[in-house]
Every structure is written in C-alpha cells, then in structure tokens.
Specification:
Layout: H1 7-16, H2 20-34
Helix pairs in contact: 1-2
Length: about 55
C-alpha cells in the first residue's frame, strides 16, 4: 500500500481495510504521514467504557 498524497486516497485506504488489525497496522501510519504527525493512533468507540456493555457500566 502506498502513502496517500491526498485526503481522498487516505479515506480510500480506510475503506479498503478488512479489519481492525489491518486498519491499525497499515492505515494509522498513513494518517501520521498525511498529517505529518510525530505520533498517531486510532481508537474505536466500543473501547470506551460507556459504549461497551461488557464493562458493566
């Protein structure tokens, strides 16, 4: 997968990710590259305690 040169290419890479692992390993570095960030990451709303019924709150 090549580095995106436009925001449209970045959204395309997000759309093509098959699962969370692929999103984290391939797309997150592209996000950091696109926005020239020193650090980048991604989180999912189901990781938040109030969004996850398994957390008991």
């Amino acid at each position: 997968m090549t580095m995106p040169n436009s925001l449209q290419a970045l959204f395309s890479a997000i759309h093509q990710a098959q699962d969370e692992r692929q999103l984290r390993s391939q797309v997150v570095p592209q996000i950091g590259e696109y926005f020239t960030a020193r650090r980048s990451g991604v989180f999912f709303f189901d990781e938040l305690p109030f969004a996850n019924p398994r957390c008991g709150k």
